[in-house]
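Sequence only, no structure available. Ideas?
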Amino acid sequence: MRKINLLKWTVLIIVLFMFNFCSKDNFQTEQVEEVQNYTADELRMIEQYNQDVSLFAQAISKSLHNDDFRKLVKSEAIKQFDGDYDILLKRIVDIQLNSNNSKSNYTVKNLLEENHPLFEETNNKSGNSLIDDLQEQYPDLQIAVPIHAEDWDANSYIPDVTYIPGDFDETTTQTLVGYTSEGNINTLDAVNEPDVPVIVIGLNERIMSPNPGGSVESPTPFDLIGSTNENGIHLSWSMPSEASYSNTNGYNIYRKTSEENNFKKYAEIYGVYNKSYNDNNVTPNESYEYYVTSFYMAYESPGTRSETVKAPDVPASVESFDAIYDYPGEVELRWDNPAGVYYEHTNVNRKILGVNSQYINIVQLPFNTVNYMDLDNITGGKTIKYQIRQEVNGYQSNANYDMVKVPYRDVSQKSSIYIKKISFNYSDFPNLEPWAMGRPEFLIKIFNVDEDPSADAVEIASTMCSFTKW
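Reply:
I predicted one. Tokens follow.
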């Protein structure tokens, strides 16, 4: 049987409250039926708790219409930081959101504040925000996705939201108050599991310590070192020898630019031995200051001394750049952008041998473009060299190159010339390729030097041939 022990919550400064009918008209209440088991003080605490978490559940329900927040809830829940699909509110409130708003530095806390039923009433009052007060009152307040979290399509589905009331009893509670994505109030079956994900607001039970001192303290990291590479800034740090899985879940990375006054939590990585981080989302020549903390359950250690690093003056280059000719009059350019690297646009330059003495910019492409079709002046017999660079704030990356020699014939059609037989004496080249690599492969190209179709030599498409030993 599960009943909430209010004295325990009081000792841990985790005060539980009950949700009762209230004078406010803008939120739903639930009557406590069995009050004889509680003292008057406990009843008042339960009533206040239920009122607070029901309002917070409504704020969550409305906030789930924000795409970024909805996806964040799923991604954080499936991390299972405490072994279940739970998210401590205090670990996500400062995460920035981008979708469905035009404000800069728009965080989860901003979103929840604006969607809280009491926001308009308290917005002009001094003191802490609604969410700050909520975290202070309930430090272990959590958002959970206890069922179907892995199967939740967060791109489109908005779950109902409910909360665990202060008088919840597993043996007697039959229903829970729920809030739908349309803003309606419904009743959820507390006994039979729903077929879809449901968001549940409550207090985390897994990080509670049997002692009033709270959860295990994670050791403090030290010796933070920052360095640069072509992709951005690399951070590494050390931990005391006692650091282990029993006291360290992972690390928080805090960052600020030279223009910012305050640090913000920038990244969270898991694993006690993952003591490094690559920040590839940097602006060339911008200075960034960092510090690192460790965490275990709800506990966060003090931070390292801060480290300031100036980002490299060039952004990262593209990867796997290829120029491909596979149809008359067309050259397709393909490349991969390094994961997590920030840049503004991609510059594609071209030089036709015998025509241009230097590379000429032919197109400037937007962020995250990975291919381009060059259709300009692609005529037979020309050799075309391509150059590609990433650009940020006027700084360009190191260049990548590839080239094509444009054939005279239509390579999309089968050639009338074919190779009947090629002999090769493998014993003359015993070290050509190790035995473990199998039979050797040869790239054969025959280039036409005469545009006259009656010439004996015609260009044959590049062919990969596999041969046995002769």
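The longest strand covers residues 287-296.
Hope that gets you unstuck.
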